[in-house]
Amino acid sequence: MADTNSNANTPHSAAPGTEAGTRTTGGGLPSPAREAGDRTGLSLAGAVLTGTVALYITLVAFGNITDFGTNQQFVRHVLAMDTTFQDPDLMWRAITSHALQDATYVAIIAWETVSALVLIAGTVLWAVGIRRGGLTRARWVSTLGLLMVLALFGAGFLAIGGEWFAMWQSKAWNGLEAATRNVTVAGIALLVVHLGAPARLRAGTEERAGATVS
Which residues pair with 24 in a beta bridge? Predict the structure, then answer.
C-alpha cells in the first residue's frame, strides 16, 4: 500500500510562491527580520523626506520674515490682479486694499512658520522613534505638518491664487510652477510617511488569524 505521507519529510519541499530556504511565518508571510528591515528603510525615508520639507519651509518662512518686501509685492500684485487680462467678469474679485493685502501676507508667513515648527518636531520624533521604537507620534505629527504645506500651496496658491485671482494669466507675478513643485514634494513625503503602516496592520491581522486557526 502506497505511503501517502512520503512527501511530508522531504527536506527541500517549499510552500507554493516561496523560495526554498526563505524563512516565513504562518500564512506565507515574510520573516520578522525581513519585515523589520523593510520598516526601518521606510522609517528612514519618512524621516529624511519630513526633514527635507521641514528645512525647505523653514527657509521660506525665514526669507519672508527677513526680506519682507520682496514677496509682499508678489502678494499685493496677485490679489490686486493688476497684471492679469483685466477681464471685467473677473476683476470684481480683486483686493486693492493694501491693509488687506498685507494682512494676507502676514497670515501666509504665520502659516509657514507654524508648518515649519510642526515638521521640525516631526523630524525629531522620527529620529527618536527609529532609535527607541514607536513611530505613531512621528507619523501623525509629520502628517499634520505636511497637510499644512499642502493646504498652503495647493488650496492657497494653486486654487485661490491661481484660479480665483487668475494668477495663471500673469507673466510677471506667477507662482504656479513653484507651488506645484511644493505640492508634489509634500505629497510624495506624505505617501512615504504612511507607506509602511497598512502593511504592518495587515501582517498583524493575518498573524492573529493564523494563531486562531491553529
Answer: 30
